[in-house]
Write a structure and sequence with these properties.
Helix content: 40-55%
Distance between the termini: 53 Å
Order of helices and strands: HEEEEEEEHHHEHEEHEEHHEE
Radius of gyration: 53 Å
Number of helices: 8
Number of domains: 3
Strand content: 15-25%
Largest sheet: 7 strands, antiparallel
Length: 479
């Protein structure tokens, strides 16, 4: 089941089915309870009515029974013997005794005082004798009864009555459960009929709603497939006008495509520029070797060495950029920035302008990172300053907030404000009039900023007090 629409429809249908079944069972249980309570009330009323007559010493044959078919009555004595049953009761179950025939030895109800002509107390004969009906809650039970040849389910209530003669009788009166059963069966049938239809509607609606909601996703998928097939990263996926998660997905996808397009374009320019930069020294070196092969006396050995060194430096720069682009993490060694700067300056014996170092000897400027990469940054900044300075190149190391600032400045022409970000791009040189040998390949500042960023720092350029450029490298303090 790979379709999201199908899984959503089936999932929603199952959830609704479970909810409806649970709700249906609860409704049936409540309905059955209410109907049984009504049957209990009817049975109790019928039983108490008969018990009340017995408490007034009414003869069995004189009992006034309402609707004997709907409310069958059975009366038993203290020993459980049947002493009376309603007319037409042929069989019963669920009462104290299954009998429906009064026992031959069952005592008859005592005559009413009004029928005793020999009563010595004529004054008392005017008041009928009374027994009592139990006020306790009756006992209820389920059972069956056959009345007039028809067998049905009943709910029986048992009420005790005491006759004036002191005889305790138990009256079992039943209320039919046919109405309850019919109502429950009707509701159950309606649920069983309506449940499949309702689930079909839920499944269809969920399918349609999910299909409509996922329609933009299909458009995004098709466009991405087309972009993959055409390799045209300038294309963009359609963005729906809604403000939901799918619209956010489309926007994020387009943003990713924009970044990817820029990255690929930057990579293409990098390859093209690298090929162009490599072509010149290789061609020069090949020409010198070919001339030397034909005329050994014309070999320009210093020029060949210079071209070889330039190739070596360019290859090292390209390799470092490739490693930085691949996400190589710098080392986490603990370094002292002042000592690193002084060491790098001490190794620069061929500079045309001496480098002034401004860093307190007794201060500690510790940072975390790769010694080789940070030394390369300082070296690149010094190389850039040496190319543009008139008479001054200075390096200053100082604390700056929670980190360390290394500033390299010169007294050259400086960097125009509109070019201060462009100079950090790869293969960009503002001194195009210079020769390639003097101006470099335009990778030094790009490498310096990438290394600074990998170390959690920044590299910016400003105007120096001397009028030239001031490159400020900021690195977070050691932790």
């Amino acid at each position: 089941m790979r379709s999201v629409r199908a899984r959503a429809a089936i999932g929603a249908t199952l959830v609704v089915a479970v909810a409806l079944v649970a709700a249906g069972l609860a409704v049936l249980a409540v309905l059955r309870t209410n109907l049984i309570d009504q049957a209990d009330l009817q049975a109790e009323v019928a039983a108490r009515e008969v018990a009340g007559q017995l408490a007034l010493d009414t003869r069995f044959e004189d009992l006034d029974l309402d609707d004997e078919e709907d409310h069958p009555v059975q009366v038993t004595d203290e020993e459980g013997r049947v002493v009376f049953v309603s007319k037409g009761l042929q069989a019963v179950s669920g009462t104290r005794s299954p009998g429906v025939s009064p026992a031959p030895s069952a005592p008859a109800a005592t005559p009413s005082p009004g029928d005793d002509d020999d009563d010595d107390d004529g004054g008392d004969s005017a008041r009928p004798a009374r027994g009592e009906v139990s006020s306790d809650d009756p006992d209820f039970s389920d059972g069956t009864a056959t009345v007039g040849g028809k067998r049905a389910d009943y709910r029986f209530a048992a009420v005790e009555a005491t006759t004036p003669a002191g005889l305790t009788l138990t009256v079992h009166a039943g209320a039919p459960l046919a109405a309850e059963q019919e109502a429950v069966n009707t509701v159950r049938g309606a649920m069983l009929t309506g449940l499949p239809l309702l689930l079909a509607v839920v499944a269809a609606v969920t399918w349609l709603v999910t299909r409509r909601a996922l329609r933009p996703v299909e458009g995004i998928r098709r466009e991405l497939a087309a972009i993959t097939a055409s390799e045209d990263l300038a294309r963009r996926v359609p963005e729906p006008g809604s403000r939901d998660e799918i619209a956010a997905l489309a926007r994020t996808t387009n943003e990713t495509l924009t970044v990817l397009e820029a990255s690929v374009e930057r990579q293409r320019r990098f390859v093209a520029d690298a090929s162009h930069e490599l072509r010149s020294p290789i061609a020069s070196l090949r020409t010198q070797l070919e001339v030397a092969d034909a005329h050994p006396e014309l070999l320009d050995l210093p020029g060949a060495v210079a071209d070889t060194v330039r190739l070596q430096v360019l290859a090292a720069d390209l390799l470092l950029l490739a490693r930085l682009d691949a996400g190589e993490k710098p080392g986490a060694a603990r370094l002292e920035a002042g000592a690193l700067v002084r060491e790098e300056v001490s190794q620069r014996t061929g500079d045309r302008i001496p480098v002034a170092v401004e860093a307190a000897e007794d201060a500690s400027y510790e940072v975390n990172g790769s010694r080789g990469q940070l030394a390369r940054v300082v070296g690149n900044l010094l190389d850039n300053a040496q190319r543009h300075a008139e008479s001054l190149v200075a390096v200053r190391v100082a604390a700056d907030g929670s980190g360390v600032r290394v500033e390299v400045r010169d007294d050259g022409a400086g960097v125009p404000e509109e070019e201060r970000e462009r100079i950090f791009e790869r293969f960009v040189r503002l001194d195009d009039a210079r020769s390639r040998d003097d101006g470099g390949a335009g990778l030094g500042l790009a490498i310096a900023r990438d290394v600074a960023a990998r170390h959690g720092g920044t590299l910016t350029v400003h105007r120096a007090p001397e009028g030239g450029a001031a490159f400020r490298l900021w690195l977070p303090g050691a932790v």
